[in-house]
Design a protein that fits this description.
Largest sheet: none
Radius of gyration: 21 Å
Helix content: over 70%
Number of strands: 0
Order of helices and strands: HHHHHHHHHHHHHH
Shape: globular
Distance between the termini: 12 Å
Structural class: mainly alpha
Amino acid sequence: MPVKTIEKVRSIPVDAAKVVAILGTLLIHASAAGGFAGAAGSFGWTAALFWNTLVRCAVPVFFLCSGALLLPPEKQVTTKVVWTKYILRILIALLFWAAAYAGWSLVQTKLRTGIVEMVAIKQALRNLLLFQHKSHLYYLHIILLVYAMLPITRLFVEKADAKLMRYALVLWFVLSSLLPMLRAFKPLSALTGIPAQYAINLTWGAVGYGLLGYVLSKEAGKYRPRVFALVYLAGFAVTFGGTLMLSLRAGTLVQTLLQGNSPGVCLQAAGIYGFCVSAFSRREKWPVVETISKASFCIYLVHLFFLDFLVERGIAAGIYPPVWMVPVLVAVMFAAGFAVWLVLRRIPVVNQYLI
């Protein structure tokens, strides 16, 4: 997750994975902002799809990091700490930044029209209270549930032997990844009744990602990095290649394989995080990566301010060729978000609860 690492001794694999994940988040949003305006299969459209799927697993990787940091039995995490520290911190950040985005939208309306209707203000307040927030803040909505489940998942990790853990992960993959994907196609698309409800959605599936992160932290070091590079490449092939094929057939972007719990995305996430564990577990220091990791939560929270600002002024993928505009937008969002972090991290209370 893009939340500050609480451990006194930092985990370099986790830090490295978080760096990849925050860059992936920026890639997804930069390519989605106008990148698919062209015809499906055109060069620009395909370039946008490439960038969009390169690290499509960004949010799942954050969940893997959460599990790696918070599920080890040796870490002391009581139910009281979960609610008074972890959940409270995320809830404060969520409401603050949701209000900031809503407020900025009202300011933009004022600048464009010269007025802000009271009905718009009331609707903004209603959206804030009903958790209808800026789209990317869905990650914080999910992590609240993941944290609330921590006492239960930690107990499971403590008591489960290797066989039971494998069974849990296989069942999780089948119900949260394979089944939701297969239900989009025949014959399972005709499935109704109770069996149609067997699938686990992404929100609850995030708990399984945490378990996978814990297991990979323990086991990935036994394998060479290239094993996980191949896992990632297989996942990318499914995500990019499968989406391209389905979209060409439909004549428009088909998002079935782009979901955070789809099989290709799951393989990408496991490949990236497993590679980081396998390649970097013996590394004691990596200052640049550690610094970016610390800034990742802030960058995640604020980057859409800058993307929206640029898109409103016609600086977007689609307006310019996505093949080079997407990386440019990522660089701008990253630099701007990092600069915000450099400022906010020096402000007491703000650096503890908001970034």
